[in-house]
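Wed. Picked up where I left off yesterday with NPCBM/NEW2 domain-containing protein. The coffee machine is broken again, so keeping this brief.
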Amino acid sequence: MNVDDLANSVVRALAQYLIHQRQSGPVAFNAKLESLLNQLEILLADTYLAETLARFKDAPEDAVRVQTLCLQLAERLREDPEAARALSADLSGAPLPVPKPDRPVNSRILLIGAGVLVVAVLVVWIALSGSTPEAPRADPAPPNTTTSTTTTTTTTTTSSTAPSSASSPPSSFPASAQPGDGGAVPAGSRILVDGLPRPQNQWVFDHGDHDVQLTQFNNSLWGRLNSCYTSQRSAKQEFRLRNFKRLEVPAVGTDGTSDAGMSVKFQVFVNTDQVKPIQEVVAGPGEIKQIAVDLPADVFSVTLQASLVTVDVKNCAQGNAVWGSPHVVAGRN
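Structure written out below (tokens, as returned):
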């Protein structure tokens, strides 16, 4: 069996096993397949490869994640033929689990339900539109618009009681600006961190709208932590930037899906120093903390790192460490 076929067989066997575990719970435990999974964690210990494996384990039914892991495992096995032989031996003795079949749905129930839905829709439509349908009507013109050629000038007055950077929400770089360069935007502008360039354009963190202790924040960053796996006890993401004087994070902590007892340490590193953080806070169970730290004038890189404070191997504490709406302020200290 060549390495491509071996990688494909191993990953798809583990995908079936993980799906079966979700369906059946602890009774689905398979020692040989667990051993196979542990071998993959050792083989893919590199930060990037470990992240690919973690994403696969989170969603083994995702065809894209399965295929990505197959390709990366095959490359790794080409570099280590001995590991390929060991995986092949383990795979040959590991029976594949049979997922539970979905419970058949009574077709009569489906027909009755569909009929009820149609009747409900008709009742609502009649109530809203009257007994007879009306002819389509033209939409009214939107407010403050006119069809004449008259030009209307609107004057906007801005309060001077607070600086614009504090009163306006953080934004991304304008299309005409150089991404990552605070000198390309007015001093004091607040720029969202998720719009900064990343080395090799790679994401380690997930990003988007997310909650910190059930409070929603837009343009957030988060990393998955799990105390039972060495590679998942911390997660970090690097961003490239210059001409920024400050980093602000309105909220850091765990999200609503995380284990309730998790404590997470959030650290900020700059440039090549990955030992001494310029800021460090610990968010305990149920806590929300903030981060606000000045950046050095020669800053060219910022790394955000989240780590578990307590390693609970027995209970496998896991969850998401979230940076809520992090942004940087343009200018130089």
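Quick read: The first strand starts at residue 190 and ends at 192.
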